[in-house]
Amino acid sequence: MAIKKFSSKYEAAWSDANQQLLCLDTGTWRTKRPVVNVEKCTYCGLCAIYCPPQCMKIMPDHFEPDLNFCKGCGVCAKECLRGAITMMPEGDFDNEGKKG
Question: In the 8-state DSSP scheme, what is residue 57?
Fold first, then answer.
């Protein structure tokens, strides 16, 4: 029985952390964006662990979403135990951080 091979070396349903997953620049169609309150962030990393597109960047004292890849799903805000991440309407930012 033949095993189907992926068409890209990064394409997979899961990652063993040896290679990057398929990254798509999809930040331009979200309606809400995560906003991090650095003072509330305890650097626990739950937002980064549960972020579906894995777009949370590691900063010196907090995690920050890469808005070019963030889809605005809100999982990071939901998983944040300290309430350091809130979802804000994209229109409040006048296209700041969006490509297009």
Answer: E
CATH code assigned to 27-92: 3.30.70.20
Q: Which two tokens stand for residue 17?
A: 């952390």
Q: Tens place of pLDDT for every residue, the chain, 100 residues?
A: 555 554 555 544 555 555 555 556 666 778 999 999 999 999 999 999 999 888 899 999 999 999 988 989 999 999 999 999 999 998 888 756 444 4
Whole-model pTM?
0.69
* DSSP strands (E only) in 8-61: 32-36, 56-58
Q: Are 37 and 84 in contact (CB under 8 A)?
A: yes
Residue-range domain boundaries for the chain: 27-92
Q: What would the 3-class secondary structure string for 44-73 be?
A: CCHHHHHCCCCCEEECCCCEEECCCCCCCC
